[in-house]
Amino acid sequence: MAIVEVTITPLGTGTPSVSQYVADVHKVLEEAPEPVHFQLTAMSTIIEGDLKDIMAVIMRMHEVPFDKGALRVSTLIRIDDRRDKPASIEQKVKSVNEKLGHA
């Protein structure tokens, strides 16, 4: 299972605010037929699932700002694809918290 961090930034919108674009992009995740799990953070969105499914969803997410009038879109994708053992968003956080003594 892959864990992917994605940030989609609309450019050329005439405003510094992007929260409406983020909400519109997030609707794609909420309505995705692919079996992905996701978590919105203050700076990005984290998605876990099969990498092919995640990339299909990200392609649709990338198009949303264009559909909403953005003239340019910058999408940053970071992939953690661990294949030696199962991985999840929760497991990664739990592992660090255990090492901090916050178990």
From TrEMBL:
Q: Locate the Thiamine-binding protein domain: which residues?
A: 4-96
List, alphabetically, the Gene3D superfamilies matched: 3.30.70.930
Which Pfam families would you find in this protein's record? Thiamine_BP
Q: Which InterPro entries match?
A: MTH1187/YkoF-like, Thiamine_BP, UPF0045_domain
Q: Can you list the GO cellular component terms from the UniProt entry?
A: cytosol
Family statement drawn from the similarity comment of this UniProt entry:
Belongs to the UPF0045 family.
- Can you say what this protein is called? Uncharacterized protein (TIGR00106 family)
Which organism is this protein's natural source?
A: Tepidibacillus fermentans
